[in-house]
Specification:
Glutamyl-tRNA Synthetase, domain 3, Helicase, Ruva Protein, domain 3, 4 domains, two-stranded parallel ribbon, binds glutamic acid
């Protein structure tokens, strides 16, 4: 019988969600939606030492911003809750007992000092079948002694009793069969009495089983844990319903040399987090895609292609198209280079697709940040200004550089253009030009241009000098959109004021 697809994204709230974690969440989501399955968000907070306040809220906000929908989770609820591991202690305790009762696990009292001593005595020491017989645990101690220590409140851990010499096979949808000999594995700690919490390994397996997870889709860094997980499913007697493993390729540094890290972002100037993160302890701020002006659709599209392709060279895909085409058949095993320039390219493309009115709305906070009140201009004006320059931008922020002159008159004029284009006769010619424009029945760009060009020729003026001097006066420099589009949008009076101001200032 085909199993219902149920996947989970299972972050630990130990800090901001890294962009690699976002990609894992995205692939889980795409796969779930592709197969009409369920997407679970499970908070794996059993490591109380590493808990960071605000991290869970950050995860929720980041996923919501990107449009990665969750069907079951702490906020969403669901039939398999609680979805936060720290609220599932009873369940874990019961499962630890199951393993102890059937001899698959044992209690160990070794103190950190004792473990340290064992390591010092034997350089490659590992707590396993070859060494457990010499340690202080329930396999080497009489039962009444074990009971006495526990009753006395002595701290202990529960360890998984790994049988040596077995080939453990991990079936992975991307990597195929990965076989490892159980002798290399150590007797992993599954539970600690000190905080009455399980470790990641136990909690993860118990929850995946109880939540009826069908596919475990996670980063490649978890592949080394997978053999242990396979053995745990067997120890619980759940081998028949073990989820299908899928270990996603690593995200690599832009040059392909090693794993992408938080420091690469700082070093090379791009965010490695979806949202800006304010570290509650150090106060350090890490930049985020959202605050840098990325559209969530662009980030999703960019991330989707880091390790997967649709089977052809289609690049621009909406979330729905990604869902329709997603499959692990086209996931690579090799790590995916984090090509940040490509990320910018996606953002550029998505900004071009955005309706101008939406782009104008996104631009308003940027205007404010530069001291311009958007309310001083009509929406129509802002929309048309933005539309004229948008082909030049990668980020909403870039609109300022290209459209600022629509909102703020130049106070300085590009020196080299003034030198090249401005002469003694320029003021008179520009005034003549303005008179000509004023006399036109309309400033419709095509007609205005024809008229002005005709007039320049008729008068024998130098086309480049006149038009560039005009541009310098209005824009401040020799670049920008088509001059007659600018004139039409700004209107005669505003343009005339700028020409007069330029004549005044450049003279001085
Ligand atoms: N809590 C683990 C993490 O932080 C989950 C790994 C897994 O998906 O099994 O990534």
């Amino acid at each position: 019988m085909e199993r219902k697809v149920r996947v989970r994204f299972a972050p630990s709230p130990t800090g901001p969600l890294h962009i690699g974690g976002v990609r894992t969440a995205l692939y889980n989501y795409l796969f779930a939606r592709r197969h009409g399955g369920d997407m679970i968000l499970r908070i794996e907070d059993t490591d109380s030492q590493r808990f960071v306040p605000g991290a869970e809220a950050y995860i929720n906000e980041a996923l919501a911003w990107l449009g990665i929908g969750i069907d079951e989770g702490v906020k969403e609820g669901g039939a398999y809750g609680p979805y936060k591991q720290s609220e599932r202690r009873d369940i874990y305790r019961e499962h630890v007992k199951m393993l102890l009762d059937n001899g698959k696990a044992y209690i160990a009292f070794d103190t950190p000092e004792e473990l340290e001593a064992a390591r010092a005595a034997q350089p490659n020491f590992q707590y396993d079948a070859s060494t457990r017989g010499n340690m202080r645990n329930s396999l080497t101690m009489p039962a009444d002694e074990v009971k006495r220590l526990i009753d006395n409140g002595e701290k202990y851990v529960v360890r998984f009793k790994i049988e040596p010499g077995r080939d453990v096979v991990v079936n992975d949808l991307i990597r195929g069969k990965v076989t490892i000999n159980s002798s290399v594995l150590d007797d992993k700690v599954l539970y600690k009495s000190a905080d009455d919490l399980p470790t990641y390994h136990l909690a993860n397996i118990v929850d995946d089983h109880l939540m009826e997870v069908s596919h475990v889709i996670r980063g490649e860094e978890w592949l080394p844990s997978a053999p242990l997980h396979v053995l745990l499913y067997e120890a619980f007697g759940w081998a028949d319903t073990m989820p299908q493993f899928v270990h996603l390729p690593l995200l690599l540094k832009p040059d392909g040399k090693g794993k992408l890290s938080k420091r690469d972002g700082d070093r090379l100037g791009f965010p490695v987090f979806p949202l800006e993160w304010h570290d509650p302890k150090s106060g350090e701020i890490s930049s985020g895609y959202r605050e840098r002006g990325y559209l969530p659709e662009a980030v999703v599209n960019f991330l989707a292609l880091l390790g997967w392709n649709p089977g052809d060279d289609t690049e621009i895909m909406s979330m729905q198209e990604l869902i329709d085409r997603f499959s692990f058949d086209h996931c690579s095993r090799a790590g995916a280079k984090f090509d940040f320039e490509k990320g910018k390219w996606f953002n550029h493309k998505y900004l071009q697709e955005l309706p101008d009115a939406e782009l104008a709305e996104l631009f308003k906070p940027v205007m404010k940040a530069h001291g311009v009140n958007p309310d001083d201009f009509s929406d129509d004006y802002i929309i048309r200004a933005v539309a004229m320059v948008k082909s030049r931008i990668n980020f909403v922020e870039d609109l300022w550089e290209h459209a600022r002159f629509f909102f703020v008159a130049p106070e300085e004029y590009e020196a080299k253009s003034v030198k090249k284009r401005w002469s003694e006769d320029t003021p008179a010619i520009l005034r003549e030009l303005m008179a000509r424009l004023k006399a036109l029945p309309s400033l419709e760009p095509k007609g205005a241009e024809e008229d002005i060009i005709g007039w320049i020729q008729e008068r024998g003026y130098h086309m480049g000098n006149v038009m560039n001097a005009f541009r310098v006066a209005v824009v401040g420099e020799c670049k920008g959109p088509h001059m007659f589009d600018i004139v039409e949008l700004m209107g005669f009076d505003a343009v005339n004021d700028r020409v007069e101001a330029a004549i005044e200032r450049i003279k001085a």
